[in-house]
Specification:
Blueprint lengths: L29 E2 L6 E2 L8 E7 L6 H16 L6 E7 L7 H9 L5 E4 L4 H10 L4 E3 L10 E3 L2 E5 L5 E6 L4 H12 L1
Parallel strand pairs: 3-4, 4-5
Antiparallel strand pairs: 1-2, 3-8, 6-7, 8-9
Helix pairs in contact: 1-4
């Protein structure tokens, strides 16, 4: 897959990844684990939705990513009110609605948490983002890791993924791209 890290026709320099053929995720239908309400992956006009697949027991990638998102939201100031985040767990066995809510809520204010128990349905939602996850082997204590795509997807009001930030993208780069997307 060919990807670009520069902006489109406007000449604006995005710091995240921009695909030559952006993903259309407008048909994604998911619900919030807390109350069963529909989750809008496609945001209202003028807003951006960030989508991330991970799990709360993640030892490093997920908390680092969410710490970077928290810093980005702080740096965005009032523009942060136009950004919401959707966290889809790749580990529905351990990530209950309360666990998800506490985890994501410790980083962000505007978010939805999604827990899809049916593995086939989870794969279907992941596939729309070209993401994936896989449960690792269970150790003697019953613990396991989850391999997962470590990308934050920025979705615009048309349901198009405009920018993707792979693991390690720092807050200033996320802020740069969100300012461009929200302008």
């Amino acid at each position: 897959m060919v990807m670009s890290s520069c902006g489109g026709d406007s000449g604006s320099a995005y710091q995240g990844i921009r695909r030559p053929s952006p993903l259309d995720v407008s048909s994604v239908s998911i619900t919030d684990a807390r109350d069963g309400s529909a989750v809008a992956v496609t945001p209202p006009e003028g807003d951006i939705t960030l989508v991330y697949f991970g799990y709360t027991h993640c030892p490093d990638v997920c908390p680092t990513t969410f710490a970077d998102l928290r810093l980005a939201m702080e740096d965005l100031g009032p523009l942060a009110d136009r950004v919401s985040t959707v966290f889809v767990t790749a580990d529905p066995q351990r990530d209950t609605a309360d666990v998800l809510d506490n985890y994501v809520g410790s980083f962000l204010d505007r978010y939805s948490v999604v827990r899809i128990e049916d593995p086939a349905r989870l794969r279907e939602v992941e596939a729309q983002f070209q993401a994936s996850s896989e449960l690792g082997p269970v150790d003697d204590d019953g613990n396991y890791d989850v391999s997962h795509t470590a990308i934050v997807y920025a979705v615009d009001p048309s349901g198009t993924v405009q920018v993707e930030w792979p693991f390690g993208t720092k807050a200033p780069a996320i802020v740069n791209d969100l300012e461009l997307l929200l302008s």
